[in-house]
């Protein structure tokens, strides 16, 4: 390596951010493809998603290493430090997002072997599109340092919960009506849960972006759609599985 | 504040580590109590777990703030830097562990309103005890800087998967045999999934402890019990929901 080539500190930080942006694009594509593979019963696409996940893992490890190196060697402070720590956090959320997309694809493979269940997979598709949009919006916010867009994603967290709760009820009804569908419906249930958690990661990313830009935490509780039994003033005596917060 | 009281850098780092240890103890207790509340249908205990979760959130935020301050002001390198970043990572895994325990407790409240299902809750209890033990072991490894113990927790990750897979099959069989149990069994399913994920966090902590002590990553794939359809050489034409990796 040319000893006279000294990488400017600013370049190193920009390169780190750029790698996170790239990782974000890959994670977005994985989520979109995974949902597509469910909707179209597309086995080849599902397998491609499963295979590509290792690239996200590699990017995560690389971003972590670079961040630690940067902190150790450059000793950043203030907003540069926040950017570096933010890169590590985002890489972590994106790696988990990729894992969840891979798991949706694995279940898509299984479902493709059984009878089509178009009404239900269409609901998954709709929820998937909402979650994909939130992920895309928050990554746009990161790329362009747009604090309002990050705030907007953060404060509409409950939209995803509403989809999840409705899907959950739909699946339970289906299962109770026809026990032969229980196994397949369980897969769809976990797909819905995975999508909800991808939505959570998008919200995490929104918080990280906000903190990175402003140096402050987004205050308050995340918006949640349905209060769970532990949060209701008078617990209702019914079996409601819709409280899924933090699952 | 007394200007002449200057906190030694080493003290600051030790204090950070001590706070993580304390958070670990609280997370352990939450997991154990949540499982107990399921096994004994103990409504008061479940409510206590739900309420105490905010303490874990507060500790997480505090550890993060202190870590960032420490990095900014003391500019640690080498093993001190790894310790500081390790504290942040552990606090993150422990906060998620607490959320999962809270969610188990919320579902315990719901189940306590219905008919007892002792065979199934006993299975949950057994899986819970295994997961609790792994969490305790890995936190002991952190407290005492024992690299071999961390490695041991990491390499026995598949034990948890085996419990999960068996529980999953048990629950599906139950649901298919009696559709009136579907809602309750779905709660138990998510409890099992939460326990599996707590197990994952214990494994994450093992990796962090290993890296913190040695400066190296634990190599290789985490041990997984049952290969999923995406990993089998010849996909078997059956609906198997047991592949739960990364859910």
From TrEMBL, chains A, B:
<keyword id="KW-0592">Phosphate transport</keyword>
<dbReference type="Pfam" id="PF01895">
    <property type="entry name" value="PhoU"/>
</dbReference>
<feature type="domain" description="PhoU">
    <location>
        <begin position="21"/>
        <end position="107"/>
    </location>
</feature>
<comment type="function">
    <text>Plays a role in the regulation of phosphate uptake.</text>
</comment>
<feature type="region of interest" description="Disordered">
    <location>
        <begin position="221"/>
        <end position="247"/>
    </location>
</feature>
<comment type="subunit">
    <text>Homodimer.</text>
</comment>
<dbReference type="InterPro" id="IPR028366">
    <property type="entry name" value="PhoU"/>
</dbReference>
<feature type="compositionally biased region" description="Polar residues">
    <location>
        <begin position="237"/>
        <end position="247"/>
    </location>
</feature>
<dbReference type="InterPro" id="IPR038078">
    <property type="entry name" value="PhoU-like_sf"/>
</dbReference>
<dbReference type="InterPro" id="IPR026022">
    <property type="entry name" value="PhoU_dom"/>
</dbReference>
<feature type="domain" description="PhoU">
    <location>
        <begin position="124"/>
        <end position="209"/>
    </location>
</feature>
<comment type="similarity">
    <text>Belongs to the PhoU family.</text>
</comment>
<protein>
    <recommendedName>
        <fullName>Phosphate-specific transport system accessory protein PhoU</fullName>
    </recommendedName>
</protein>
<keyword id="KW-0813">Transport</keyword>
<keyword id="KW-0963">Cytoplasm</keyword>
């Amino acid at each position: 390596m040319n000893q006279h080539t000294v990488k400017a500190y600013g370049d190193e930080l920009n390169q780190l951010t750029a790698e996170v942006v790239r990782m974000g694009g890959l994670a977005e594509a994985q989520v979109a493809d995974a949902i597509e593979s469910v909707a179209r019963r597309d086995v080849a696409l599902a397998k491609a998603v499963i295979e590509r996940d290792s690239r996200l893992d590699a990017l995560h490890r690389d971003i972590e290493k670079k961040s630690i190196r940067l902190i150790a060697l450059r000793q950043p402070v203030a907003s540069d430090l926040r950017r570096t720590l933010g890169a590590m956090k985002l890489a972590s959320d994106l790696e988990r997002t990729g894992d969840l997309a891979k798991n949706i694809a694995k279940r898509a493979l299984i479902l493709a072997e059984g009878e089509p269940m178009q009404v239900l997979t269409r609901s998954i598709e709709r929820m998937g599109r909402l979650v994909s949009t939130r992920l895309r919006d928050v990554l746009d916010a990161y790329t362009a340092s747009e604090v309002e867009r990050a705030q907007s994603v953060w404060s509409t967290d409950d939209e995803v919960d509403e989809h999840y709760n409705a899907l959950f009820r739909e699946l339970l009804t289906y299962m109770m009506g026809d026990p032969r569908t229980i196994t397949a419906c369980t897969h769809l249930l976990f797909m819905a849960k995975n999508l909800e958690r991808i939505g959570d990661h998008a919200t995490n990313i929104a918080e990280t972006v906000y903190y990175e830009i402003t140096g402050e935490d987004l205050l308050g509780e995340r918006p949640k759609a349905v209060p769970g039994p532990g949060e209701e003033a008078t617990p209702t005596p019914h079996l409601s599985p819709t409280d899924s917060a933090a699952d």
